[in-house]
Amino acid sequence: MSMYLFHNLLLLDPRQDELRDGMQVLVEGGTVREVSDRPITSAAAERVDMGGRTLMPGLIDAHIHLVLTEVNIRLLSDVPLTLLAAKGSVAAREMLMRGFTTLRDTGGADWGLKAAIDQGLFVGPRVFIAGQPISQTGGHGDFRSRTQSTIFCACCSGLTWASRVADGVPEVVKAVRDELRKGADHIKIMVSGGVASQLDPLESLQFRVDEIEAAVDEATRWGTYVAAHAYSPKAVERAVRAGVRTIEHGNLIDAPVAGLMAERGAYLVPTLVTYDSMKRRGAEHGLSAASLAKNDVVLQAGLRSLDIARAAGVKIGLGSDLLGQLRNDHMNEFTIRREAMSAQEVIRSATLVNAEIVRHEGRLGEITPGGFADMLAVDGDPYRDLSVFDADGSRIAAIMLNGRWVKNRL
Predict the structure, then answer these.
(1) Residue 247: its pLDDT value, please?
(2) Helix (H) and strand (E) counts for the chain?
(3) Are residues 330 and 273 part of one domain?
(4) Do 123 and 103 share a structural domain?
C-alpha cells in the first residue's frame, strides 16, 4: 500500500477563504489519513515536496454527458455503441487531465463504461451515472423526427444512450426500476423543453405531476434521488414540489421558485458554459436554427439565475453539459461564473456542493481525514486566478485519483 507525505505546500480548503500555509498531508492507499499544521512523522511514507504549489481537492462536474459525442445529437443514430464507448473513454480521460476527478453523468454513460474506468481499462475520473434519462413522448429526450414513429434500435444506435421514452405512471415506474437495475446511481427525468431537442417548446411542462412523483418514489425507495432537466419557473416548481432533489439548468427561475428550492433543500446545477459555446460554435456543428433560437433565451437568463438562487440561499453546484466538439470550452464555466460569484464560491460549487450532490460529502470535495485521496497540485492560487484551470490542464502539475498518480511532474 502506497503512502505519501505532502509538504512545502499551500492547502486549499474550500471551507476557508484563504490558502493555508505550513500544512502537511499524509495519504495511505486511497485515503487521506492526516492533515496537520505541524510536521507529520511517518517512516513508511514517500515524501513529496510540493515546491510551494497549491494542494487542493479534485474538481467535480455535476452535469456531463460522456457519450453524447455530437452537438447535433441526432447524428448519434448512425454511431455504433462500440465507437460511442471508445469516444466516451477519450472524453473521460480529457476531463480527468483538466482536474476533474469526479463526474456525475446525467444521461448516456452506462454501468459498462463506469466499470471499465473502475477496472482500469479506461483512464478516467470516478463516475456516478444516470443511465438513460427518461422523457415523455415528444419531450426533451424524444429525438425522433416528426415523420418517424419507431424508437431507435438499442442494439445498434448510439442515440438510444441519450434517453428513453415512458408515458403514464406504470411506464415511468418500470423505466425507473429498469435504470436502477442496470446500475444507475441516480435517475434523470425531463420535465421541460430543451435546447438540443427540436420539436418541443422551451416553456412546455413535461410529465404529469403524478408521473414525476412516481419517479421520485421509486428512486427514494431504492435509496437514491431524481435529477430533473428544467428551465421555466413552473417546470422547476412542479418538480421540486414532487420531491425532485436537483434541478439541472434552471436558467429561467424566479425568486418565489428559488425560495421554494431553498425551503425544500433542492440543489441547482447551472450549466452556463454550454449556452455560451453553442451560441458561438453550435451552427458549425449542426445545431438547428430552432435550437439556436431557444439557446438565446436561456443564455440571456443564465447569470441572473445565479443571482436569484444565491439571494434565496439555494445551494449551487457546477456543471458543464457540453456536447461533443464543444468540450474544449469546458473550463470557461469558471470564468463565466466569475461574473456573478467570487472565486471561492465557484470553487465551493465544484467541490463541497457537488460532493453533497453525489452524496459523498466528507469523502469528496475536500482534503480531510477519512476522505478519498483525490487531489491536485496547482501552479498558482485559484482564489486569486481561476485561469489556473485551463482547457489543457497545463497549470496542474500533478493529479492524484484515489491515492494513485495519473499525472505527476512535481
Answers:
(1) 98
(2) 11, 17
(3) yes
(4) yes
